[in-house]
């Protein structure tokens, strides 16, 4: 049996957190959250504009150390919301400041109908990892928390991961 960790970043509606918790509950994995040292503040529109500027500049905010040691895990699921067609800047920081050599990474992302190139970008910035079970989960296009991807698809994805980690 492989030891699994779910790492995620979630900011506004908690959609990525919701999926991360569902994955954790379905697999028995440990879970930890990526948090920026300086939290985003202001209105939703302010943060959206800041996020756009950060993505365009390739900015990587400082993040707090996570509460676990990645070396203790065989499989690491990493979740991010889509920010301007790619991963949230905090996830970019996490991926580029950790060593995933010999790990299996399960990249997953939430989006409002514009998945962009998140998974590809995650894989390009996660050096040394093998990848499995990539997943795009869509919520409504208004930036709310209504799930568009069916629960059955998510349950099946979690089941496949569970089967793989328990081999």
UniProtKB/TrEMBL annotation:
Signal peptide location: none
Location of the Flavodoxin-like domain: 5-162
UniProt source species: Dorea hominis
Domain of life: Bacteria
Pfam entry (one): Flavodoxin_4
The protein, known as: NAD(P)H-dependent oxidoreductase
SUPFAM superfamilies, per database record: Flavoproteins (SSF52218)
Database matches in InterPro entries: Flavodoxin/NO_synth, Flavoprotein-like_sf
